[in-house]
Write a structure and sequence with these properties.
six-stranded mixed beta sheet; binds zinc ion; alpha/beta; 8 helices
Length: 242
């Protein structure tokens, strides 16, 4: 059994912060911390200290907690070289396809622009885990806030190539709202109907709907099921007005 521990901290309104712990190396990686004291409090309660922060993109709800965490834990901060000077306290500039090795954890940097002009995801192959930021959500995808539909379409195609057993750790609990839109454009999809029912139950029980398997997303996420960039762009516009 893998000794690696991946945990979720719900923060702010509907954000998730992911914490990956390697007990042998005593490495604790935190992804996309917004400004919420619950992050440090929870990690300390678990008996861990944050050693590294990985950032997918510099929106405030992903980076505003960095300065306090660096002051408290003296951890290292990694982000895209494109966002150097934009991400607070970031000293390590990552290139696409680079592999960041932290203890036994090897995070591959995948370039996935579209939500913003620059955005990266982190793929941890050993754990079948993808930290997708605001690119791919369960049954949805990020809004276009600086990038283009062409970029996001291509980025989702790239992520679709990962193994189907990949667990998608996305930053927001948007799943239930995404299901409503997905059902409106794909009402006869049985896998989608079943997933929507499961999600309703999970939310009623106060459970996270994340992570979700890529294989299930390929069956249920309308944004992964577009055949062309034009279709994708139209669907994204439709969702913006839903
Ligand atoms: Zn964002």
């Amino acid at each position: 059994m893998s000794p690696i521990d991946i945990r979720i901290i719900p923060t702010l309104f509907d954000n998730y912060v992911f914490v990956i712990h390697d007990p042998e190396a005593n490495v604790t990686v935190c992804i996309d911390p917004g400004d919420d004291p619950i992050i440090a409090d929870t990690v300390k309660k678990w008996g861990w200290a944050i050693t590294h922060i990985l950032v997918t993109h510099p929106h405030y709800d992903h980076v505003d907690g960095i300065a306090d965490l660096v002051d408290e834990f003296n951890c290292e901060v990694y982000g895209s070289h494109h966002d150097y000077g934009v991400i607070p306290r970031c000293d390590f500039r990552l290139q696409e396809d680079e592999v960041v090795t932290l203890g036994s954890l090897k995070f591959k940097v995948i370039d996935v622009p579209g939500h913003m002009r620059h955005h990266i995801a982190y793929y941890l192959k050993s754990e079948d885990a993808l930290f997708s930021g605001d690119t791919l959500f369960s049954m949805g995808c990020g809004r276009l806030l600086g990038g283009t539909a062409a970029q996001l379409y291509q980025s989702l195609k790239t992520l679709s190539q990962l193994p189907e057993q990949t667990k998608i750790y996305c930053t927001h609990e948007y799943t239930q709202a995404n299901a409503k839109f997905a059902l409106s454009v794909d009402p006869h999809n049985e896998a989608l109907k079943a997933r929507a029912r499961d999600v309703d139950q999970m939310r009623q029980d106060g459970e996270f709907t994340i992570p979700v398997l890529l294989g299930l997303e390929l069956k249920t996420n309308p944004f992964l099921r577009c055949d062309s960039e034009q279709e994708f762009a139209a669907l994204r516009r439709q969702k913006d007005n839903f």
